[in-house]
Structures are given as structure tokens and as C-alpha cells.
């Protein structure tokens, strides 16, 4: 379950405008559903995975990104959900590690509990993938085997 403070952190990572009283879960959901601005990709890339050269391809194809830029269109709902999942796992990783470099290292290295796959990539595929990454982070945070 995502709580208000976590939504605030995710909104900040995504570069969303401040909302008086903060985002509720329903408001955040509506914002994602309406499509995030393209600038959110660059912001998340810079914060979460600055060394990941093809970061945007986790979210959107190069061709589609180019068309969206030309037309000044936002991300689709599906693309926005992918990017929000990255913001979610980043917020959790940062909370667990208390250090951005360590959080980045966790998200960018293959993990045994993900069948040797990279957490950042698993998290973008589906909500269940993001849940698997968050579960590992929860185990780390609360002292279980991970």
C-alpha cells in the first residue's frame, strides 16, 4: 500500500507541480492517467539512472518519443504508469539505502531474487514486477533475507 508521504516523494521525482495539501492517491492516479509530461522522463533519468544511456527506452520507443516531442504531447497512460513505477521503486530504494549511489547500484545490478534480472527493468514491465522489487527492498529494510 502506498501512503501519502510516498506519493509526495514519487510526485517530486516525476517533477510534478505542487498541489495545495499534497496529492491524494486518487489525485495522483488521475495525474498519471492523464499522461505525464515528457520532461518527467529526463528528470527521472537524471535522478534514478544517469548512467543508463537508453533509459527512455524502458518507457517509450525512440520513434514514439521523437513524435511526441514534435507534437508536444504527453506520455500515454501506459508510459506514465511505467515511469511512475520507477519513481515508486526509487523512493523505496532511497528510503532503504539512505544513499542515492547505493540505491542506484541496487536498481541497476542483476538480483538473484529476480532470477538474475535488473530491478529497474523488472519494475517497468508490470505492476507485479514493481511489487517484486518493492518486496525485496522491504525485506532489506526490515532485516529479512534478500
Automatic annotation (TrEMBL):
GO terms for molecular function: DNA binding. Residues 30-88 form the Antitoxin Xre-like helix-turn-helix domain. It comes from the Bacteria. Residues 93-143 form the Antitoxin Xre/MbcA/ParS-like toxin-binding domain. Pfam families: Xre-like-HTH, Xre_MbcA_ParS_C. InterPro entries: Antitox_Xre, Xre-like_HTH, Xre/MbcA/ParS-like_toxin-bd. This is Uncharacterized protein. It comes from Alkalilimnicola ehrlichii (strain ATCC BAA-1101 / DSM 17681 / MLHE-1).
Amino acid at each position: 500500500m502506498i501512503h501519502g508521504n510516498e506519493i509526495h516523494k514519487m510526485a517530486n521525482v516525476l517533477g510534478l507541480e505542487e498541489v495545495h495539501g499534497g496529492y491524494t492517491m486518487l489525485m495522483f492516479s488521475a495525474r498519471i492517467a492523464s499522461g505525464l509530461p515528457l520532461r518527467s522522463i529526463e528528470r527521472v533519468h537524471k535522478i534514478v539512472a544517469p548512467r543508463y544511456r537508453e533509459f527512455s527506452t524502458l518507457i517509450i520507443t525512440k520513434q514514439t518519443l521523437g513524435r511526441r516531442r514534435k507534437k508536444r504531447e504527453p506520455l500515454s497512460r501506459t508510459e506514465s504508469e511505467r515511469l511512475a513505477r520507477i519513481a515508486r521503486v526509487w523512493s523505496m530504494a532511497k528510503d532503504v539505502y539512505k544513499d542515492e549511489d547505493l540505491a542506484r547500484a541496487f536498481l541497476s545490478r542483476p538480483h538473484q531474487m529476480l532470477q538474475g534480472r535488473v530491478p529497474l527493468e523488472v519494475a517497468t514491465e508490470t505492476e507485479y514486477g514493481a511489487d517484486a522489487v518493492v518486496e525485496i527492498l522491504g525485506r532489506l529494510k526490515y532485516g529479512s533475507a534478500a
